[in-house]
Amino acid sequence: MSKVTRRKASKKEFILLKAAQMFREKGFAATSMRDLAETVGIEAASLYNHIRSKNEMLETICFDVANLFNIYIDEVEASDNSPIPKIEVLLRFHIKQMIENFEAVFVCDREWKHLDEPYLSNFRAQRRTYRKRIAAIVEEGIRRNEIRKIDAPTSVMIMLHAVSGIESWHRSKTKINAEDLENNMVMIMIDGLRKQ
Q1: Which CATH architecture has domain 53-193?
Q2: Which of 8, 22, 97, 179 has the greatest number of CB atoms lying within 10 Å of its CB?
């Protein structure tokens, strides 16, 4: 069996990882380039060899996460699955990202409002379109009589806010394991949608 070798993260990737961590902990506005340089372990002036600005870091984090989610929903929409399984795989993907890629997903979800134009408008439009795409799957499920007659945009809002709440799981001192968390959340939300 061949060994899997992990590529070492570049300095820029390491800086972005630390930036996401700091933006989550302190907020984008309260994080300075000096704070970030100190955390990374380099001089503040040296940061600019790898990154142009704090805003560029936020743009990269937000749009990398958005691209990941958009690519995944493209695959889900293209699948032959019916609406309930499509929603379930989307939920599982969201939950896993919130568990395994927490810092970047959290920043993308909470700090995007600090993006500069034209990135802010672009990102806002992507968020709106993404939610509409999930709502369209819910509406298809209602038409197929798989999902209760509910307001699709409201159901999407509830599901995404529930997943966003995984932040408190990360902070909890006593918590269930990640797999049980995922299975519990999916069961509760899918059963709430499914027509009995």
Answers
A1: Orthogonal Bundle (1.10)
A2: 22
